[in-house]
Design brief:
Layout (H helix, E strand, L loop, with lengths): L6 H27 L5 H16 L4 H23 L10
Helix pairs in contact: 1-3, 2-3
Length: 91
Amino acid sequence: MANKISEEKLENVLDKFKQALDEASKEFIDELKCDSETYEQVGRKLHQFETGTLYTIGVPHKMSVICFLNYVKEQIKKEMNDLPLTNRSRD
């Protein structure tokens, strides 16, 4: 059947998308971290970028960018949550 959907091929395409998304978000986060000393500074940079960029993006790509930035935020939260606790009062 020529019209039969190959689930395996579709899953391969989806895997490529996930890999590209992970690579792009890592690069984006690394750039946000550049010259930042805290996650608060990273968050400010992300917010500044987000508010400035969303007004300039055309409608066809706006939802994709919003989804990407939300993914970046989740990756940053995950990274922060995975950090070990430190007792700064002893420093």
